[in-house]
Design goal:
By secondary structure, the protein is mainly beta. The chain has helices at 15-19, 43-46, and strands at 50-53, 58-67, 72-77, 82-86, 92-96, 101-104. Strand 2 and strand 3 form a beta hairpin.
Length: 112
Amino acid sequence: MNKYALVSFYGIDTPETALKYRGAIINADNSLLPSLHAKEYFYDQIIGLAVYTTTGENIGIISDIFPTGSNDVYVVKGPEKEFLIPAIHDVIKTINPEEGKIIIQVLEGLLD
């Protein structure tokens, strides 16, 4: 599945006009967005979630997400340190926006 959506706006029909809005933040009614499959989330559903290890340790809050060639990386701000957590199946065990948390499996060196 593609991670991006193609969006068009009335009155913005040339590259020159669109360039004026480059980098702008847009809001959309959730009913206009495509449906997601199970275990798929929009970035705004993940940013702000608390991150816990499988042993129950709270390591911080997701403050940002950035895509890489193979997977997303979650930026987790802890009380004293920032962590970069790869969004891969070996690490991310549970994402639960309703409970406001993500459970991760700590692999060797992940939190060093």
